[in-house]
Write a structure and sequence with these properties.
262 residues, Fructose-1,6-Bisphosphatase, Chain A, domain 1, 2 domains, inositol monophosphate 1-phosphatase activity, metal-binding, Inositol monophosphatase
Amino acid sequence: MKDNLFALKKLKQAKTWVREAGAFLRDNIHQTLEVSQKSNFSDLVTNFDQQVQEIIIEEIRKNYPQDKILAEEAGRNTAAFDRSQDNFWILDPIDGTINFVVQQDNFAVMLAYYEKGQPQFGLILDVMADKLYWNNAQEVFCNDRKLSYKPQAFEKSLLSINSMIYRKNLYKLTDFSLTTLGVRMLGSAGMAYADLLEGKTVAYFSLLQPWDYAAGGILTEKLGFVTKTFEGAKPNLIDRQYVYSLPAHLVEQLIQRTDIIL
């Protein structure tokens, strides 16, 4: 985003849209929810997912009608735009819908922006705490507080791992976790990325859609993290993939101690 005034303008607007979406959710969280299933009993969507999505998409289309949008509740249309050339947004209106329904906490609104295929900024709003994680060209912030990464060792850190990966010991990650201080399972990619940014965990492993990792991947990269698939590739922003994010200096250790590929 260096010296990109157009992207900076979009960042300012996007922060407003996401904060307004968060305020809408906080104001209405005790209203009656309309909950339905998508792919299975634990894959839920609510009327508020759809309303937040409509609010943000309407703003994008009103201000930037040529920009493309990939949003969770609109489904995937992988042929709709060129991810290497177009300007596009990736939106998850409520990340952690089960947490939203059951806990009324620990969920996030996430929005990422790419210009000509290049990542510009990511936004993750911890809705109930009203904490907005965002980046400019060089730095990452939580609200107005600048964040920085303090080097950690696996042995003195916590991991965040998807429950299915942990139960099945996929890529030997469960075995690997026994050499760390433990594992946290939050039920929200956005909240897991917030913990990474705050230094509460050192790595995140999950099976994710593009809207789950786009914003978090951009934000953590600014702090010296890498986001890759378990096969060592850059996530393609199209498919659901096994994805990890962790500090670059720990990648080699991870490869040596698990079945993840560099």
